[in-house]
Amino acid sequence: MIKRSLSLLMLVLIIACKGDPEVKEASEIESDSIKEKSILSGDLLGEDRVEFTVKEANNLAELPLNCINTQYPNKLGQTLENKEAIGEPQELHPAFYGCFDWHSSVHAHWSMVSLLKQFPDLKKAETIREKLKESLSAENIQGEIDYFKREQSDSFERTYGWAWLLKLAEEIETWNDPLADELGKNLAPLTELIVKKYIEFLPKLNYPIRVGEHSNTAFGLSFAYDYANAVEHTELKELISERAKDFYLSDNNCPLTWEPGGFDFLSPCLEEVSIMSRVLPKNAFEMWLEDFLPQLKSEDFDVEVGEVSDRTDGKLVHLDGLNFSRAWVFYGLINQYPDKFSHLQEIADRHVAYSFPNLVGDSYEGGHWLGTFAIYALQESKDM
What we know:
This protein has 384 residues and is mainly alpha-helical. The chain contains 18 helices and no strands. Helix 3 (54-67) runs antiparallel to helix 5. It is globular.
């Protein structure tokens, strides 16, 4: 094993000397229609593959529209400096106050941009545009920056919310639309602040966080890497690549059979695969995977979907998110290595098909965030 790890390290160093390898571009609850009925087509139940059509995009667009201006219930995740630090969610976070918590609000805005990019003729396209302009105004973004500058808010949303903010910035940056210019300019100061936070934080992180929830390091690195790659931010991209190798290059035999944990919405093993598929050259990644998760290459590989017992429980419904995030990793591998991982498509499709019809269900607990996870998974499946 030591000999193999040394060989892998040498291969990475040799390729690094030749230059960067090719990488994967890679409410007061206002009418809780969310609770009253499913807005998704019922004919998907029992199907093995969910097709990302304009019909489903129109349905999915209702999820962020139903929550971005919904102020309560709200989980602020706030550390108070003093009693004056307390405020209404919209006072504290003028751009991202809805959808139960800050990161969910951020990625709800990502969802709207992503859907408009892929389906410009959405039924509520103009409504979405108006909402984006309203939320992502220069004044509102300055309010978000002011919050991060509070004495006790330096680590607010580290790194999960940071990652989604950069994913939103990436989506806007790569959107060929006049509105994108306005939104990108408004968002830029907050984007720059988050990039600065990554650059300051990552060198201080001695050990990666290997959990199936928000603080998972690999997830935070993957989305930040995508942003850095898209906008050619060399310093951030190189730092993430370096730290990912520091954290994960010597890992082996990831215990996938221990997953999922009861509250997981990310797979610790697969999120690690995801970041390493971004930062390692093809040959080095394949060698690394042989040590880390060799069964993934087997035609006989399988993993059961995460089963949800109670979708009114905000933690237990995390497992629907796990199904979507597993699927997007599988789809990503197929897109990057179609000759090696095409057998994963049926597994990914099954994971999406299990959770997709339940996106709304009878509770806001999943409705305020799961749509984003579904959109990201379906977006990856479209690229195949």
